[in-house]
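Writing this down once: the sequence line spells out the residues, with the fold written below as integer tokens. I am pasting one below:
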Amino acid sequence: MPGDQQGPQRPRNTDELYSERRPIVQPRSPRQALVPDHLPPPPSRRARNPLVIIGNAIFTGLLLLIFAGGATLYLGRGKLTAAGPLERERTIVIQRGQGIREIAETLKREGVIDQVFPFVAGAVAFRVTDEMKAGEYLIEPHASMRDVLSAIIDGRSIQHQVTIPEGLTSEQIVQRLRDSNVLTGEVSEIPKEGTLLPETYKVTVGTTRDQVLQRMAALQRRLVQEVWDRRASDLPLKSVDEFIILASIVEKETGKTDERPRVAAVFVNRLNKRMRLQSDPTIIYGLMGGKGALGRPLLRTELDEPNAYNTYQIDGLPPGPIANPGRASLEATAHPARTRDLYFVADGSGGHVFSENLDQHAKNVARWRDVEKQQQNSVPQPVPAATQQPQSNEQPKDPVQNAQDQIAPQTTPSTPVPQAKPQSAAAGAPLTSPRTVITNQKKKTAKKTDAAGQSAATPPAQGTSQKQ
């Protein structure tokens, strides 16, 4: 009522005020309590776009691939760097044309690796599948896959040496290559004489013979041109071809490097004086056709018989090289010694003594004959077959042949040496090489008499066979 007075009111706290505002919730069953009061709004049209769905799937797949790749890389790295199963060092051969999987299977078969997939995966991961090099490899004990992979990629294969001596013909060089069990393939064509550089070449298993020949030819062309370009200006040679021909003769005449410039000078002096070269190796090449040694001493009749390479019968140089000259002979021919020598004769020690005229040459011949007699009368040694047999139609064999099968030049019958009694084949040996024996062949030929009155068919007496 109005006028009624109420007592003082108690202040209310925040919880009481909040509870008065909330609506009274009617009790529900547990099933109803699980149903939300308000449903979430439906997804937008953009989220339901197929492109968005596909993009999300791709992104999720990429993430999975990255995680899987990382895990594989981590585990694979450990497998690549782990010690291998090989107990002792082993040599393996990777053939040309083998793919990465074939290489891996070869390594597994040889016991170098224990699994193929990690090795292949490692090569693919490092992008080196096309860099694997064929060859023969020495694998260390317990080498890891990564070590093996690096060795094959770098081509650290075992190097073999193929040595080609100076002075061999092209056919002899090809035969040496055919005899090598390191090289493969057939030789398609025998190179021209004088186009190959004698040298020691390093090759790997599987290198073809044609590849070696191509390498030898390329190096020879480069060397010949280099030496020819800085040759002496007064050489009586008109072309590179003539240069190679003369160098091949020098190569066959002596095996001593320090003598080559002086031997070259003898031939250069003879060319300048228009004298015939009279070199025995040229005759042998003409007889054998480049197939190698004659296998017996030259006969006196062979010096007189027509032969395109017989420098006793032709003027100037032969039509082509008689061997493949090395660097030393090329250099000596390009820069011969400055001498007036026209003759040389063996000195008994493996070298030669040179002379400018016939008088000096005759004295040198006499000294060589004395040395020869002393050698024959010294310590008893097996007598060469040529000295055991009397002169007859049977051809005595050369007792000694060196790697170059050299036979030194002879003097023409015009050398003014007094006639002597018939001698054995050994006594008539050419003076530029004590290994060569020239014998007479009984043959009906017309005797040709030179200015000194000596017959071309007469056996050489006391060293009449020498350069002139």
Summary: The two ends are 170 Å apart (CA to CA). Confidence is low (pLDDT under 50) at residues 383-468. The first strand starts at residue 90 and ends at 94. Residues 160-227 form one domain.
